[in-house]
Amino acid sequence: MTVSIVRFGGSNCDRDAERALAHLGIDAEIVWHEDGLPADTTGIVLPGGFSYGDYLRAGAMAARSPIMAEVREAAADGTPVLGICNGAQIGCESGLTEGAFTTNESARFQCEPVFLRVERTDTPWTAAYEEGEVIEVPIAHGEGRYEIPDDRLAELEDDDRVLFRYCDADGDVSAGANPNGSKGGVAGLLGERETVAVLMPHPERATLPDVGPTDGQGILRGFADA
Amino acid sequence: MTAYTATVTVRLKRGVLDPEAETTKQALKRLGFELEALRSADRFEIDLEADSDEDARERADEMAERLLANPTIHDYDVEVDER
Q1: What pLDDT is stored for residue A59 in this prediction?
Q2: What is the rounded average pLDDT for all residues in chain A?
Q3: Confidence (pLDDT) at A226
Q4: Molecular function terms in GO for this entry (chain A) (predicted)?
Q5: How far is Cα A104 from Cα B9, in angstroms, rounded to an integer?
Q6: What residues make up the domain containing A206?
């Protein structure tokens, strides 16, 4: 059982993810994208960072690299895939998940702790939480505003594929609690299968007790049964 | 084969917030300019050899579809000129 953390040129949260997973007792290794997915891959992390310098659009280049065809194939076969921050942008750009993450409403890079409301718990990524539970996880992005046409957001909501929404400490989803102008307050969502998820906040930065709150652990535990 | 330049212009769909354009608009206003709105767009100039302008257009169109634009948030148009 090995979780492959796909490193692109410009990924910079790959080692954080490896360390966070190790802390949870989950075997993981960093894989250079040009080397392809190892045969024993049982889970995939698309880590945060600035792949290809965010050229064109954040995640656009990495999404079209050959390894992503392998990732899509593995995802379709049920391999758990988690895209974090730049990995979430790559996930949307590659069609693993719907919509797009684009420039924050503030037009600024934002690095701050945020509250997330867990929207459903019957997924590997949220089984550790209660429905409606509020967790604190940091964001660090300039292009994290979730954008999707209204009719497709409605479909996404009807399919119950919104996993996390930005909220206040009491769990209320409001414009004031939305750090980047994301439509519907969407912070994370599922792909076609519940084993595929992307989110802009960083659970790997909220896992090690030495560096602060550990609310993100439950998300990474999605790989525990992989 | 003829030498063409295909110009692909990628812009946000109407209604999609453009915070960078909004910031630029505010900066122009601070400089004393009067304006109602400002929209920004990315323009790609692609030099290529093709059998016809239809062929050049088709290829540039596919480049826009597959990479240059993100259909979730963007519209684009393609212009082709002999070079």
Answers
A1: 97
A2: 97
A3: 61
A4: ATP binding; glutaminase activity; phosphoribosylformylglycinamidine synthase activity
A5: 22
A6: 2-223
Domain count, chain B: 1
User: Residue A4 in contact with residue A223, Cβ under 8 Å?
Assistant: no
Residue A180 · residue A105 · CB < 8 Å: yes
Residue A106: which of B18, B19, B67 has the nearest Cβ? Answer: B19
> Which parts of chain B sit beneath pLDDT 70?
none
* Chain A CA closest to residue B12: A102
What is the structure's pLDDT at A35? 98
Residues of A at the B interface (Cβ-Cβ below 8 Å)? 56-57, 60, 64, 92-93, 98-100, 102-107, 145, 147-149, 181
Report the pLDDT value the prediction gives residue A1, as an integer from 0 to 100. Answer: 73
CATH of the domain at B24: 3.30.1280.10
Q: What is the pLDDT of residue A131?
A: 95
Measured CB to CB, residues of chain B less than 8 Å from chain A are 16-20, 22-23, 66-68, 70, 72-73
DSSP alpha helix (H) spans, chain A: 14-23, 60-63, 67-76, 86-93, 150-158, 217-220
Check if the beta carbon of residue A169 is closer than 8 Å to that of residue A181: no
Mean pLDDT along residues A159-171: 98
Kindly determine whether residue A100 and residue B70, on different chains, have CB atoms separated by under 8 Å: yes
Residue span of the structural domain in which B68 resides: 2-82
Is A111 in the active site? no
Question: Phi-psi region for residue A37, left (φ > 0), alpha (ψ -120 to 50) or beta?
Answer: beta
Q: A63 with A90: CB under 8 angstroms?
A: yes
pLDDT band at A225 (very low <50, low <70, confident <90, very high): confident
How many domains would you assign to chain A?
1
CATH number for A7: 3.40.50.880
